[in-house]
């Protein structure tokens, strides 16, 4: 597996994208509305920042209400998401997603519960 992206919850994707583009030379690689969110991927040399701005009430709006803006999750790319989920199960990791589901940018994704991963919400993503 390799690092894919850091998901960052924000209530101002445009403003944060502009800051990151200037500060980190991270241009917008992809921008879409998906699942009640605006999702903006900013390209870095070795991965992405994924900006998550809620368009309606949901997981990210609740996260922002509870925690404020900031890192929501870390994503690891895999060529075999089913195998990665099986490995997590074999290690006793609690899964949020028992099976992969459609994610932003047309990728398959699955999340591991932070209770089992030292407090970090981890996403597996298969391109």
Number of discrete domains: 1
CATH topology: 2,3-Dihydroxybiphenyl 1,2-Dioxygenase, domain 1
Secondary-structure element string:
EHEEEHEHEEE
Low-confidence stretches: none
Give the end-to-end Cα distance, rounded to a whole number of Å: 12 Å
CATH class: Alpha Beta
Structural class: alpha+beta
C-alpha-based Rg, rounded: 14 Å
* Oligomeric state: single chain
The shape is globular
Strand content: 35-45%
Number of helices: 3
How many strands, what sense, and barrel or not for the largest sheet?
Answer: 8 strands, mixed
Topology, number of strands: 8
The appropriate CATH architecture is: Roll
Description:
- The structure is a single chain.
- By secondary structure, the protein is α+β, with helices and mostly antiparallel strands.
- The chain has one domain (2-126): Roll (2,3-Dihydroxybiphenyl 1,2-Dioxygenase, domain 1).
- It is built from three helices and eight strands, in the order βαβββαβαβββ.
- It has helices spanning 13-24, 59-67, 81-90; strands at 2-9, 28-34, 37-44, 47-54, 70-77, 101-102, 108-112, 122-126.
- Strands 2-3-4-1-5-8-7-6 form an eight-stranded mixed beta sheet.
- Strand 2 and strand 3 (37-44) form a beta hairpin.
- The radius of gyration is 14 Å and the shape is globular.
Task: Please tag this protein with its features.
globular, 2,3-Dihydroxybiphenyl 1,2-Dioxygenase, domain 1, 127 residues, alpha+beta, 8 strands
């Amino acid at each position: 597996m390799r690092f894919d992206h850091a998901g960052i919850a924000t209530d101002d994707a445009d403003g944060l994208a502009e800051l990151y583009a200037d500060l980190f030379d991270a241009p917008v690689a992809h921008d879409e509305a998906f699942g009640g969110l605006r999702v903006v991927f900013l390209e870095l040399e070795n991965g992405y920042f994924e900006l998550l701005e809620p368009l309606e009430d949901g997981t990210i709006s609740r996260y922002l209400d509870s925690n404020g803006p900031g890192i929501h999750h870390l994503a690891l790319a895999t060529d075999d998401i089913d195998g990665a989920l099986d490995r997590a199960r074999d290690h006793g990791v609690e899964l949020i997603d028992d099976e992969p589901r459609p994610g932003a940018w047309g990728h398959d994704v699955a999340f591991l519960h932070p209770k089992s991963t030292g407090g970090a919400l981890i996403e597996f993503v298969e391109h």
